[in-house]
Design goal:
By secondary structure, the chain is mostly helical. 64% of the residues lie in helices and 3% in strands. The protein contains 8 helices and 2 strands.
């Protein structure tokens, strides 16, 4: 039974329907925030992810360890996406090369964030179970584009709450890689590698939070 359900919204007219069917089965605060971020992105577009994550992490009040555990949960998802689902769908050509490269990098992110949490005296969050709806190269790439851009928006949302300069620098180095992944995949699926205009422009918190929260099941 999906833990992430877009009740009352359906999937007709969703900004990113690919996200609506991704399941994240976990009871941690980090998993809940990730499900909320994907609900925001599915319904309102990826600009909605940034303010949702920012507000959710501010309410969590767990400091840098809480933020890092959210990032770790996101990296678990991306690592599984490339290293598990990518091997199941029979990728070929450039898609296969990207999935192999990106999968190694996402696994490196998991290791680096885990070590950082431990160095801060925290406990790394357990890896959730994921159900990823991709059964072909085309559906895999469509979801890859959305997931990578979601990751960029999520890191942008988390950054203002980070207290340590060292942690902020580490997060900044990871989000740059996520953005390059997003640009590469976008080109592969004939999308623009960058947003229109010179900036990623999020929606306001008020535009997103009150409407998205009722759509999330814990």
């Amino acid at each position: 039974m999906p833990n992430h359900t877009l009740t009352n919204a359906g999937q007709a007219g969703l900004a990113n329907p690919e996200l609506a069917n991704v399941e994240v089965s976990g009871l941690t605060r980090s998993s809940f925030i990730l499900r909320g971020a994907m609900a925001a992105g599915a319904v309102y577009g990826l600009g909605a992810v940034t303010p949702f994550v920012s507000q959710a992490l501010a309410q969590a009040g767990g400091g840098d360890v809480e933020i890092l555990n959210f990032a770790l949960t996101l990296e678990y998802l991306e690592s599984d996406f490339y290293n598990v689902k990518g091997k199941e769908v029979g990728l070929k050509g450039q898609a296969l090369s990207y999935a192999s490269m990106f999968g190694e990098q996402e696994a490196d992110h998991v290791k680096a964030i885990t070590k950082t949490i431990e160095s801060l005296g925290g406990k790394p969050v357990a890896k959730p179970t994921f159900v990823i709806p991709a059964s072909s190269q085309s559906s895999f790439l469509a979801l890859a584009s959305v997931l990578e851009n979601t990751g960029v928006s999520a890191y942008n949302g988390a950054a203002p709450s980070i207290q340590s300069k060292q942690v902020l620098a580490a997060a900044g180095s990871i989000v740059q890689i996520e953005a390059r992944h997003a640009a590469a995949i976008n080109l592969l699926v004939s999308k623009s590698p960058t947003p229109s205009g010179g900036f990623d422009v999020p929606l306001t918190k008020a535009q997103v939070l009150t409407k998205v929260t009722p759509l999330i099941k814990a």
